[in-house]
Design brief:
Oligomer: single chain
CATH class of one domain: Alpha Beta
Number of strands: 6
Structural class: alpha+beta
CATH superfamily of one domain: Ribosome hibernation promotion factor-like
Largest sheet: 4 strands, mixed
Radius of gyration: 21 Å
CATH architecture of one domain: 2-Layer Sandwich
């Protein structure tokens, strides 16, 4: 069976695949903006990695993500670091998650978990609504 391999992905296999189906699908690169408090470079890298992981199933572009950190109580301490994540995916409603915790890492973890659930729910809704063909199309396919 002849096949071409480029960088570890199968490009084309001679089994009647069209060019569109033989290309590997890549998810769009999101625009990630981090604002607010000063963030350590290790946390910044972790933020980018986890947000990209949460957006794996999104096929539309451009995706814009804004992450904002704020110190709610100032120097008093306590539950005072707020992390808000806003995700804008084309042709869908904007998503928002906001959590407060003792540290910026904990606040991000909580809000990232919430936004990941929202993104997964949004993708699931799109798949469910897209699986029902019109009755005329389905009837023509049965003939």
């Amino acid at each position: 069976m002849p096949c071409g391999v480029v960088f570890g992905t199968v490009v084309a296999v001679s089994l009647g695949m069209t060019k569109a189906s033989s290309r590997p699908r890549s998810s769009p690169v999101p625009t990630i903006e981090i604002a607010g408090l000063a963030i350590a470079p290790t946390l910044r890298a972790r933020i980018v990695q986890q947000i990209r992981h949460a957006l794996v199933g999104v096929q539309t572009s451009p995706v814009h993500v804004r992450i904002t950190f704020a110190d709610v109580n100032g120097p008093k301490g306590g539950l005072d670091v707020r992390c808000a994540i806003d995700v804008k995916i084309p042709r869908t409603a904007p998503l928002h998650a906001e959590e407060t915790a003792v540290s910026d890492v904990n606040a991000f973890d909580l809000s990232e978990a919430a936004i990941s659930r929202q993104i997964a729910r949004q993708l699931e809704r799109g798949q469910e609504s897209g699986r029902h063909p019109k009755k005329y199309y389905a009837a023509r396919r049965l003939q």
